[in-house]
Description:
The complex is a heterodimer. By secondary structure, chain A is mainly α.
Amino acid sequence: DTAKPVEPAQPSAQLLSLRSARRLMSINDVSYPAPINSPNPALNTGAPTGKLRYNKEFLLQFQRAFVEKPSENWTERVKETVGDTSEPSSAR
Amino acid sequence: TTESNGAAKSGDEQVTVFHDPENFNVKHPLMHEWTLWFTKPPSGKGDNWNDLLKEVVTFDSVEEFWGVYVSLPLHSHYHLSIQQSLTSANGAINLRVSSKIPEFLFPTDMLIKPPPDKRSAPIDELWLHAMLAAIGETLENNDDDGEVMGVVVNVRKGFYRVGLWTKTVGKSVPGGGEGDVAGGKGRSPEKSKDVLLGLGEKFKEVLKLKDAEVVEFSGHTESAHGGSTRAKAKFTV
């Protein structure tokens, strides 16, 4: 799964979902599918609505779940800001 | 299906990216908007920090962070800062602060020297963990501590540095208001110091530093010049 996807001209289903998704307001009642671990409930117990905290272990799980570049012109955007990097970007 | 006002109610199905990566309807919001900046390597000819600074992207969800992270080259040339925002009746007004960022941030830089046999040290991992602690809001103990403004990584031959940028060096700042907030007149010096020391302890934990490894807090009086004018340490943890 290390093949580099060609940058899509149209937003992917994942990007479209992101753009239309609602912001989670509370998290302790979300049940995540196995093997995903919920965030540490103590972090968000009694938290103001929509002000969520996430522990590292929870956040790291997204690395494989959300892999979409943030915009259709991302490659150009990176080239403009970061420059033409000859160093290979490693997928982590 | 109809959307009821976005509240999490039973019966209102919440589909996350883990449930369906291509067809999810809720995302994980971050408490703040964050902006990722790329710092161009200095040319060594007295570059102005502002000219080396390039805004890459601004995001406010966990999903977006990872989309950015997995598709970025050169991970060790970035810093991440909170996008200053003001709330109005109409929602958030973003202040673009690109040229001003270094002026109001006081980096609490730390210098970590990797062992000679580990020059390539796990800096990428440490940097990732620093960013996750920042966006996940686990560095501060209380919502109203208000000190964390950004994290920064800096890799050079033979050393690397990961910094935590705070709003103040433990004193009120001009325009900081009267309240018990970071930089406000209502916050006592004792509390300011406690908040900063707590942050330092937490940051050491994130970076897996031993207790004996000292982290210095130092104020940047002229941080617009890329960190060459580091003031002496105010205190250490």
